[in-house]
Amino acid sequence: MKKEEGYPQKIYSVPTKRYCQTLDLKEDPALIQEYVKRHSEACHWPEIKEGIQSVGILEMEIYLLGTRLFMIVETPLDFEWETAFQKLATLPRQAEWEEYMSIFQVADPKASSSEKWKQMDRIFHLYE
């Protein structure tokens, strides 16, 4: 799908909330290309996707502009961020994935996902 056409959004049978986060990649076109490849459907690690879903995350999207990543995480209203990400850090291959991803990211290589990705403040919505 082309970005100019927009991206369809899932509809859930439960009320949801979303978290928005950002992280920067190293300024290296080859590394950025590899980072994108590693997140593609053909190359992602199934254990990582399964782990994300097992902690209660309904959807996770990552967008890229230059070296800046923007992530949207959609969850049920009763989702507890800290608890979920503590559990996620213990799941199969998660630490290996985080270490591998650190070669692309401007972040501490030993940091967990929840330490690397910085939550953003919402400053505007349509107030409806």
How would you characterize this protein structure?
- With 128 residues, this protein is α+β, with helices and mostly antiparallel strands.
- It has a single domain (16-119), classed as Dimeric alpha+beta barrel (Alpha-Beta Plaits, 2-Layer Sandwich), CATH 3.30.70.
- It is built from five helices and four strands; from the N terminus they run E-H-H-E-E-H-H-H-E.
- The chain has helices spanning 29-38, 46-54, 81-88, 94-101, 113-116, and strands spanning 16-24, 59-65, 68-76, 118-119.
- The protein has a four-stranded antiparallel sheet with strand order 2-3-1-4.
- A hairpin with a 2-residue loop joins strand 2 (59-65) and strand 3 (68-76).
- The chain starts with 15 loop residues before the first strand and ends in a 9-residue tail after the last strand.
- 11% of the residues are buried.
Features:
single chain; 128 residues; alpha+beta; Alpha-Beta Plaits; four-stranded antiparallel β-sheet; 30% helix; globular
In short:
With 128 residues, the protein is of the alpha+beta class.
Ordered list of secondary-structure elements with their pairings:
Layout: E1 16-24, H1 29-38, H2 46-54, E2 59-65, E3 68-76, H3 81-88, H4 94-101, H5 113-116, E4 118-119
Antiparallel strand pairs: 1-3, 1-4, 2-3
Low-confidence stretches: none
How many strands, which pairing sense, and closed or not: the largest β-sheet? 4 strands, antiparallel
**What is the CA-atom radius of gyration, in angstroms?**
15 Å
Distance between the termini: 29 Å
Helical percent range?
25-40%
Helix-strand pattern: EHHEEHHHE
Oligomer: single chain
Q: What is the CATH superfamily label?
A: Dimeric alpha+beta barrel
| Whole-number mean pLDDT | 94
Percent strand equals 15-25%
Structural class: alpha+beta
Total count of helical runs of at least 4 residues: 5
The strand line-up of the biggest sheet is: 2-3-1-4
What is the general shape?
globular
